[in-house]
């Protein structure tokens, strides 16, 4: 059987399908909304004109976001949670991104809604970066709705499980003939049921 090299496969990998699905959820307008939330609303500074991913790539803005959100739960004059600095060293930039991700985990953002460092630093999956920021806004809004507006729908409140009715008293103790069935003492012998022998049909 011959193989046509260079031909595009009929199906795409699952990871690529999921990546495309995430990316389709973020129009340019949705990305601009996240940018306004991060810079104007949380950091109280002008929104930059460049791409959001480019603004986040060195990790500084992410660390500042984490400090600003964490500051709402901290006493006044407490030192920032995350230390950061302007640097062009890739390792240090990625470390600053990792510190932001660690803050998100501790803050309550689910693991499946967090990006990996390479998703941002190498721009492998910008959509999951946007999703992380949206998720962080939901958890921040849940704690401080007056300080942090939410991006998209708010977190749903988990409804308590409805109470389970208690069993009647006659079903609580031990084995219940009413619950599992009762044959009134019938057995194979009393019912004339014989296994392994020829039936007597006369």
Which labels suit this protein?
single chain, 202 residues, mainly alpha, Actin-binding Protein, T-fimbrin, domain 1, elongated, CH_dom_sf, Calponin-like, actin filament binding, SM22_calponin, Calponin
Task: Walk me through the topology.
Elements: H1 14-24, H2 28-42, H3 52-56, H4 60-71, H5 90-107, H6 117-121, H7 126-143, H8 169-172, H9 177-180
Helix pairs in contact: 1-7, 4-5
Low-pLDDT regions: none
**Given the helix and strand composition, which structural class is it?**
mainly alpha
* Fourth-tier CATH superfamily name of the domain at 22-143: Calponin-like domain
CATH class of the domain at 22-143, please? Mainly Alpha
According to CATH, the fold-level topology of the domain at 22-143 is Actin-binding Protein, T-fimbrin, domain 1
Largest sheet: none
| Helical stretch tally | 9
The radius of gyration is 30 Å
Spatial shape? elongated
Write up what this structure looks like.
This protein is mainly alpha-helical. It has helices at 14-24, 28-42, 52-56, 60-71, 90-107, 117-121, 126-143, 169-172, 177-180.
Question: Concise description?
Answer:
InterPro entries: Calponin-like (IPR050606), CH_dom (IPR001715), CH_dom_sf (IPR036872), SM22_calponin (IPR003096). By secondary structure, this protein is mostly helical.
